[in-house]
Design a protein that fits this description.
heterodimer, A: alpha+beta, six-stranded mixed sheet, five-stranded antiparallel sheet, 8 helices, about 30% helix, elongated, B: mainly alpha, globular
């Protein structure tokens, strides 16, 4: 990015001081006939003359760019400032504006470059690391170059911030339980219909078309008729991650501090998506109450990137005042909906219940940690938070009474029990509200 | 355009982030000014307490905002006071005062290279050390010239004064062009 054209070289205060200071003292010395004052002025006079002789001719141009525009939490990149026509530059300094979730090296984001041998092009990198997911502007600040003897300086207008997308680093997650309704083509989840797979289904009499290696010889010898081992088909499943970003509880601390509920939500969503996509399942994303930021259900490693980029765009406080009946989720039957929500609003509860009544398998993943502290040190906020927790308890009861399981996020194994239970329930006939 | 309150806040913020190197450079202004006054006293000049207070306040101002005109005011205060209150003799104290003034100027120049948290590169510091040595040598040469001039520069005739005024005028014109034309 080209930095804004600032004014050309300007004399520094040092040059003005040396020039005017020596001039006034020399005048006093000459007019008053004081050679001692001339000696006093001589040091400044020499500096001023040297500065005038080495005045800069060429006007350097500055360009700033981010070496990487997208990275993961904790990863580093650098703001590279390139100075062209810099033959008269003796010293360059870049001072980047501080941003909450950006750590610079050095910590205050000020880096300088002293030129030993004059060069046409100079490069100055300020390394930085992003400490929290999200999209934010970085690289704005001050750039200045100084000529020989510190006499002239060219100060450039602060370059505009460049957007750095920080993808959430998915937390540790693993699920051994299969998803309840795999209805795709190929995958790793045992389906309800028989087919080519690895999971045992039954031993049945041979029918034309059965493969020879499926013949179960022991049973065939015992019964006298040919029997084969049958397996269930293995299919991929659809997972929809539904994120409630209407509230953020707790103080976010980035990678170096504690997690807010939104941190847990975003990182959990990333972890779940990564896990299921690597297993070959299809994963989609929907932000509750927002028309943008949705990612349709799909598979593949490139799709994971899309999901993480969409998660990086999450902004807290969105999705209020939306009619859940008007929301379109774009999910097909058999999709498992994982609702990541602190369940603090009627919207979240109503949407969850509505999806369950459509016949979808819905699981609420609760990102509120049991030890979450809100309003520490402020008794009024603490009381308000306790009241809010009581209300939340009622909302969670409403969700659970509708037959929707609620699990607290704890990383690996969070979904195992509930998915196994749902898998068993899926085999039973059930009533669907339409 | 930032408000005075915002500028004041920025200034205090900057002072809280001063690097050790910047602290040393900025401390050189009050120290150097005190040395000039001490040498003026040793040279037989009179340093009034009120003037001492003004100089110290000004020097502290330089330490707080080195990238300003405060140091020019300090240099002029010290130089004009020397002209008014010190005896017109080219002694070794004069050379010492000239070098102390140079020290104040160079330290302030280095302190104004960047934000308060900046730690200047070693290459730049070495270069300035060489420059300081050159200028100090030049100053000593001028002092020696003035000190050991056969009949003394103070007693030079009108032609010498006229020549000096002409040189000063030429320097003024050159300086004006450099300072004004590029603003």
């Amino acid at each position: 990015m080209q930095a804004d054209e600032g004014p050309s070289w300007r004399p520094t205060d040092a040059f003005v001081r040396a020039g005017l200071g020596s001039l006034v003292l020399v005048l006093v010395a000459v007019l008053a006939g004081r050679p001692d004052v001339l000696v006093l002025a001589s040091s400044l006079l020499l500096v001023a003359v040297a500065s005038a002789v080495r005045r800069p001719g060429s006007v350097p141009q500055v360009q700033a760019r981010l070496l990487h525009t997208s990275l993961r939490e904790g990863e580093g990149t650098a703001v590279r400032t390139t100075f062209r026509d810099a033959s008269d530059v003796e010293h360059a300094v870049v001072a980047l504006a501080p941003h909450r979730w950006v750590a610079y090296d050095p910590p205050l984001g000020v880096r300088d470059l002293a030129v030993d041998v004059p060069k046409e092009t100079l490069t100055l990198d300020v390394p930085l690391s992003s400490r929290r997911w999200g999209r934010r502007g970085v690289g704005d600040g001050l750039v200045a170059v100084t000529s020989a003897w510190g006499a002239f300086r060219r100060r450039l207008e602060p370059p505009h911030a460049m957007t750095l997308t920080t993808l959430p680093t998915p937390g540790p997650f693993d699920a051994k339980a299969p998803t309840p309704h795999p209805i795709g083509l190929v995958g790793t989840n045992p389906a309800r219909r028989p087919g080519e797979g690895t999971e045992f289904a039954s031993i049945r009499p041979f029918t034309p078309g059965d493969r020879l290696h499926r013949v179960q010889w022991r049973v065939s010898l015992r019964t006298g008729t040919l029997h084969v081992t049958s397996t269930v088909a293995e299919q991929d499943a659809g997972i929809l991650l539904l994120l409630d970003t209407s509230a953020e509880l707790g103080e976010p601390g980035g990678l170096d501090g504690g997690d807010s509920t939104l941190d847990v939500t975003v990182r959990a969503a990333g972890a779940i998506a990564e896990h299921y996509l690597r297993r070959g399942d299809r994963v989609g994303l929907r932000l509750l109450g927002r028309s943008t930021g949705s990612v349709p259900v799909a598979a593949g490693t490139r799709h994971l990137r899309r999901l993480l980029e969409s998660l990086a765009r999450v902004v807290p406080g969105e999705g209020r005042g939306v009619d859940p009946a008007r929301m379109h989720f774009g999910v097909s039957g058999g999709t498992v909906v994982l609702m990541l929500s602190p369940m603090l609003s009627d919207l979240a509860v109503t949407t969850t219940v509505m999806l369950a009544r459509r016949g979808l398998t819905v699981v609420v993943v609760d990102p509120v940690a049991p030890d979450l502290v809100v309003g520490e040190g402020d008794p009024r906020v603490e009381v308000a938070w306790r009241l809010r927790l009581l209300e939340r308890g009622l909302l969670l009861e409403r969700v659970q009474s509708a037959g929707i399981p609620v699990v607290a996020w704890r990383g690996p194994g969070t979904l195992d029990d509930v998915l196994r239970r749902l898998g068993r329930q899926a085999a039973l006939p059930r009533l669907v509200h339409r | 355009m930032s408000s005075p309150a915002a500028r004041w806040s920025d200034l205090l913020d900057g002072l809280s982030r001063l690097s050790v190197q910047q602290r040393l450079l900025r401390a050189s202004a009050p120290v150097g000014a005190s040395v000039v006054l001490l040498l003026e006293r040793l040279a037989g000049g009179a340093v009034q307490p009120w003037f001492l207070a003004i100089v110290l306040v000004q020097a502290l101002l330089v330490a707080v905002i080195p990238d300003s005109g405060a140091c020019l005011v300090l240099v002029l205060l010290l130089g004009v006071h020397w002209a008014l209150f010190a005896p017109p003799a080219v002694t070794g104290w004069v050379l010492g005062a000239a070098l102390a003034l140079l020290g104040v100027h160079l330290a302030t120049t280095l302190a104004s290279y960047g934000p308060p948290s900046l730690v200047l590169h070693r290459v730049l510091l070495l270069r300035w050390a060489r420059r300081a040595g050159l200028v100090a040598a030049g100053t000593a040469a001028i002092w020696a010239l003035v000190r050991f001039w056969p009949s003394g520069l103070g007693s030079a005739g009108g032609w010498a004064t006229g020549l000096a005024l002409l040189a000063t005028l030429a320097w003024t014109l050159r300086l004006t062009r450099l300072l004004v034309a590029r603003r």
